Amino acid sequence: MEDIIRFLEQLRRHNNREWFEANKLWYRDVKARFDGLVARLIDAIAAFDPSVAGLAVKDCTYRIYRDTRFSPNKEPYKTHFGAYFCPRGKKSGYAGYYFHVEPQGDGLIGGHLLSAGLYMPEPNVLKSVRDEILDNGERFAAAVRGASGFSLNAENRLKRAPAGFPSDSPYVEYLKLRTSIWKSSSTTVLCCRRIWSKALPASSARRCLSSLC
User: Fold this and answer.
1) Three-state SS string across 43-107, please?
2) At 25, is the secondary structure helix, strand, or coil?
3) If DSSP codes are grouped into helix, strand and coil, which group holds residue 11?
4) Cα–Cα–Cα angle for 25, 103, 64, nearest 5°?
5) Confidence band (pLDDT; 50, 70, 90) for 185?
6) pLDDT tens-digit profile of 131-154?
7) What one-character DSSP code corresponds to residue 177?
8) Please, how many CA atoms are within 13 Å of residue 62, restricted to the half-sphere of its CB?
9) Which has more confidence, 188 or 133?
10) What is the Cα–Cα distance from 110 to 90, expressed in whole angstroms?
């Protein structure tokens, strides 16, 4: 794990094609290590959430190359590794579990992250989630309260109740959410196995996820 962090730290300092090509073997080595971890995590998560059983590593991981066509930031490489575990793979639109490894400091997130839930869903999916919250709000609220070690991400919420939903609902603050994500950040370099074995299987984050699926 430490070697992965060291590589990403160096890539952040030297985010150009010349450095990357000169260190391509190092990249392949740390990518293979990360992929091996992802394979083990698929099996570990499937032990308590069978919906992710049978996923391949490529179904969960992302390319390191950035799409810079419409971005003012022309750095060619991402300076993090991430994996998203959900039914049918990362492009399915289903709620799932996300693991993010990134050196501390400036960056996409600026550190390591564990999260579970649904990120920026399509409008029809978001409406379905809101309908479920409206009908089963206490179940959702109980899942939020029970997610020990995780916090509900309230960024990018609406200022008012969404159109078609009652503003006087006792769960209106949940209805305002555009993203339903429970997250737990780490500011130190931790062993991935320790993070996942301690945080996800023993926590009620998976119950939070089940309230969305």
Assistant:
1) HHHHCCCHHHCCCCHHHCECCCECCCCCCCCCCCECCCEEEEECCCCCCCCCCEEEEEECCCCCC
2) helix
3) helix
4) 45
5) low
6) 999 999 999 999 888 887 788 888
7) -
8) 19
9) 133
10) 22
Rounded CA-CA distance 149/208 in Å is 12
Residue showing tokens 């555009």: 178
> 151: helix, coil or strand?
strand
Q: Quick one: pLDDT at residue 145?
A: 87
Q: How far, in Å, CA of 57 to CA of 40, rounded?
A: 10
Tokens found for residue 52: 């992710």
Question: Over 90: is that where the pLDDT of 63 sits?
Answer: yes
pTM: 0.81
* C-beta atoms surrounding 84 within 10 Å: 22
Q: Give the Cβ contact number of residue 73 at 10 Å.
A: 8
CA distance 207 to 210: 5
Which pLDDT band, with edges at 50, 70 and 90, does 120 fall under? Answer: confident
- 181 to each of 3, 63, 119, 178, 210, how far by Cα in Å? 29, 23, 6, 10, 12
Report whether pLDDT(36) > 90: yes
pLDDT of residue 197: 42
Q: Widest CA span of the chain, in angstroms?
A: 60
pLDDT at position 108: 61
